Amino acid sequence: MDNEPSGLLLAHRAMLRDLDRCAALTAGLAASGTRLDRKRAGAIAGYLSDFCDSIHHHHSAEDEVLWPVLERAAGAHVDLTELTDDHAVLDPKLARIRAGAAALKSGHTVTPALAADLADLRDTLREHIADEERTIVPLIKKYVSDEEWNRVEAVIRRHGAKMSFEVPRILAVSTESELAEARREGGLPVALMIKLMPLPFRRREAKVFGAVR
Questions:
Q1: Nearest-5° angle of CA 13, CA 17, CA 22?
Q2: Residues 165-208 pLDDT 10s
Q3: CA 57 – CA 65 distance, rounded (Å)
Q4: What's the 3-state SS for the chain?
Q5: Distance between CA 131 and CA 153 in Å, rounded?
Q6: At what angle do helices 163-173 and 38-61 cross, to 10 degrees?
Q7: Which superfamily does CATH assign the domain made up of 6-161 to?
Q8: C-alpha radius of gyration, the chain, whole number
Q9: Which of 41, 46, 66, 82 is the most exposed place for a label (fewest CB within 10 A)?
Q10: What are the domain boundaries of the chain?
Q11: Whose CA is closest to 74, among 153, 134, 141?
């Protein structure tokens, strides 16, 4: 079968990028004790909240959509217990970050606790994603048909993702060859999406990070 789960890998790439830059941003602001103005505090808090929702959507979609397909296709060749246990650990971590983001919005200061929680989430997900790509991606490529994988990706897209947040982040980590392939497959509508969707998101990023990175 040897299909390439590019959507999954791009989602991981975007997640790792944001984990690094959100952890670095909050660590710097917490260390400096900077009191932010209302707009910047709200922008950072809103971004962190959307990022937590994105991570929750990703692992919930894996649990509810991808894992059952993979278990049916690969049978005894797959054991998802450890990865599912990792997902269960994530929700309390995300809840702490959401609470820290709410406190930032009202108090205009990044606390050391919020910075520490983001660093912890970054380290946890780095390890989890490495394990997932090492163990799960080869099984998808070997046992899940192209047709079934396309169906999985379509269901996941309808699973509650906030596309105005997800798509620009995916595009930002896509290579030129990946973008060219998307344009070839999607035609003019996808070409327009690639050109236009990132524009408002870059303005949002500038409010959060100070510059687009």
A1: 150
A2: 999 999 999 999 999 999 999 999 999 999 999 999 999 999 99
A3: 11
A4: CCCCCHHHHHHHHHHHHHHHHHHHHHHHHHHHCCECCHHHHHHHHHHHHHHHHHHHHHHHHHHHHHHHHHHHHHHHHCCCHHHHHHHHHHHHHHHHHHHHHHHHHHHCECCHHHHHHHHHHHHHHHHHHHHHHHHHHHHHHHHCCHHHHHHHHHHHHCCCCCHHHHHHHHHHHCCHHHHHHHHHHHHHHHHHHHHHCHHHHHHHHHHHHCCCC
A5: 21
A6: 80
A7: nmb1532 protein domain like (1.20.120.520)
A8: 18
A9: 82
A10: 6-161
A11: 141
Of the candidates 127, 166, 150, 168, the residue with the CA atom closest to the CA atom of residue 65: 150
Contact 165, 50 (CB under 8 A): yes
pLDDT in tens, 22-59: 999 999 999 999 899 999 999 999 999 999 999 999 99
| Other C-beta atoms lying within 10 Å of the C-beta of residue 4 | 12
Q: 109 and 126 in contact (C-beta within 8 Å)?
A: no
* Spatial separation of the C-alpha atoms in residues 38 and 36, rounded to whole Å: 6
